[in-house]
């Protein structure tokens, strides 16, 4: 609205300038008539012309003040626009901070006797057709090590009722197994060699990367990935069948256990 008013005032100023330009020749003609005839009528014409000229000049003097007032109002409104832009910028920075925080990798070490429940992904729809998991594994050596400790729970992502869809990992007979169930069709991948075993203080870990596209799964395993003598195993592939291809997780009943699980939870693959 202010811009339109400013344009209208500018147009009025242009018209005023044009009027003054048109009056100049008329004024000159009247002066000639006055000099030639020196009559009372020519003086009346001249007086009328001067009065018109004064009126137009007065209008011209008022227009700059009007322009200044419009400019002042416009400058007062500008901070409101800046505040709105700053608020939008603050929202963007907050969202960027949240995105950065979600990408922060926090390492945690589990010994098989305790675990945590991790918050599941917020958008479960993204996991239906494709799922990717990446983690590091190590079996600590101990004087109390027995054959029973060669079985260790790693993780579970799925429904609280494990007879439904899930993805899980465990160390069974010292070897990593990855299991998943889609619509009741279960599939399992077992790594051909035992998980690297060393002192806990030794930062030698195996790297695991599990990827699933519909019913097809692939496991890449690097033994001793953090050492100078790492070796790559696989990839190991699996197919759960074509009758069910999506990972269907109920937002109200999904759980994500890492390192351990509650006593009342039944693990189908471990």
For this entry, give a set of tags:
single chain, 270 residues, alpha+beta, six-stranded antiparallel beta sheet, four-stranded antiparallel beta sheet, 12 strands, 37% helix
Please give a quick description of this structure.
The protein is an alpha+beta fold and 270 residues long. 37% of the residues lie in helices and 27% in strands.
Write structural notes for this entry.
- A hairpin with a 2-residue loop joins strand 9 (206-213) and strand 10.
- The model has no long low-confidence stretch (mean pLDDT 77).
- The two termini are 71 Å apart.
- With 270 residues, this protein is of the alpha+beta class.
- Strands 1-12-4-5-6-7 form a six-stranded antiparallel beta sheet, with no helix packed on it. A four-stranded antiparallel beta sheet has the order 2-9-10-11, with no helix packed on it.
- The longest helix has 63 residues, at 40-102.
- Helix 1 packs antiparallel against helix 2.
- 37% of the residues lie in helices and 27% in strands.
């Amino acid at each position: 609205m202010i811009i339109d008013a400013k344009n209208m005032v500018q147009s009025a100023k242009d018209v005023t300038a044009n009027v003054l330009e048109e009056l100049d020749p008329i004024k000159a003609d009247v002066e000639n008539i006055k000099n030639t005839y020196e009559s009372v009528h020519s003086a009346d014409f001249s007086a009328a012309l001067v009065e018109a000229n004064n009126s137009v000049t007065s209008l011209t003097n008022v227009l700059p003040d009007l322009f200044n007032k419009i400019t002042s109002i416009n400058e007062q409104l500008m901070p409101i626009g800046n505040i709105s832009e700053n608020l939008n910028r603050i929202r963007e920075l907050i969202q960027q901070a949240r995105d950065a925080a979600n990408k922060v990798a926090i390492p945690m070490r589990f010994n098989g006797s305790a675990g945590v429940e991790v918050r599941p992904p917020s958008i479960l729809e993204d996991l239906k057709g494709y799922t990717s998991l990446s983690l590091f594994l190590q079996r600590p050596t101990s004087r109390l090590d027995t054959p029973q400790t060669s079985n260790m729970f790693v993780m579970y992502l799925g429904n609280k009722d494990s007879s439904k869809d899930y993805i899980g990992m465990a160390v069974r007979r010292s070897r990593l197994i990855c299991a998943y169930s889609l619509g009741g069709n279960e599939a399992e991948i077992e790594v051909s060699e035992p998980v690297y075993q060393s002192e806990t203080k030794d930062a030698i870990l195996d790297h695991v990367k599990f990827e699933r596209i519909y019913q097809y799964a692939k496991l890449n395993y690097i033994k001793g990935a953090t050492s100078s003598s790492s070796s790559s195993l696989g990839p190991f592939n699996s197919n759960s069948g074509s009758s069910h291809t999506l990972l269907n997780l109920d937002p109200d009943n999904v759980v994500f256990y890492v390192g351990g699980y509650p006593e009342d939870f039944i693990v189908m693959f471990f």
